[in-house]
Amino acid sequence: MAVKGLGELDQNYDGSKLRIGIIHARWNKKIIDALVDGAVQRLKALGVTDANIVIESVPGSFELPYGSLQFLQRQQAKGEPLDAVIPIGVLIKGSTMHFEYICDSVTKALMRLNFDAKVPIIFGVLTCITEEQAEARAGLIQGKMHNHGEDWGAAAVEMASKQPK
User: Which Gene Ontology cellular-component terms appear in the entry (predicted)?
Assistant: First the structure.
């Protein structure tokens, strides 16, 4: 599966009783779609049912932290709490400092959300220098790299399985 990362450990976890949320940015649609598909495929391979995979979107990566919190709160209010959330975004460096500010802000906010929400928030944000790097990490360039969405799905099941009930 992974060149570096989770390896085969993820096969030890059963996601059949878990409800996992995926919230994704709408920028860089081709790459986002591949990453979401990879996460969904891995979740299903680990036993998460279609009915327990909930997917929403937000405008961009900057909106992922607050969007994730709102997503958790909406699902909780409906009586259908999420066991983990995978925020998925793609940030590609341009010619201004915008990239650095957004990467730093989103990373710190998602990390903090783990502790504030007390629910695993998986870091599913690619921060790439080029579009080709992002495409490779989304599994869109044959033989170059695997789809990182798969790793995020596995991480969600592992971390949710370790949560005290």
Answer: mitochondrial intermembrane space; riboflavin synthase complex
Q: How many CB atoms lie within 10 A of CB 109?
A: 18
Please give the distance of CA 111 from its chain centroid, rounded to a whole number. Answer: 13
Length of the chain: 165
Query: How far lies 122's CA from each of 13, 39, 88, 131, 141, in Å?
Result: 16, 11, 9, 22, 24
Annotation says 98 is catalytic: yes
The CATH superfamily label for domain 54-88+97-121+145-159 reads Lumazine/riboflavin synthase (3.40.50.960)
Confidence (pLDDT) at 96: 83
Task: Look at residue 2 in the predicted model and tell me its pLDDT.
Answer: 43
DSSP 103-148: HHHHHHHHHHHHHHHTS-B--EEEEESSHHHHHHHBT-STTT--BH
- Which of 24, 98, 146, 148 is the catalytic position? 98
* pLDDT tens digits along 68-98: 999 999 999 999 999 999 999 999 998 888 8
Q: Which two tokens stand for residue 4?
A: 């570096």
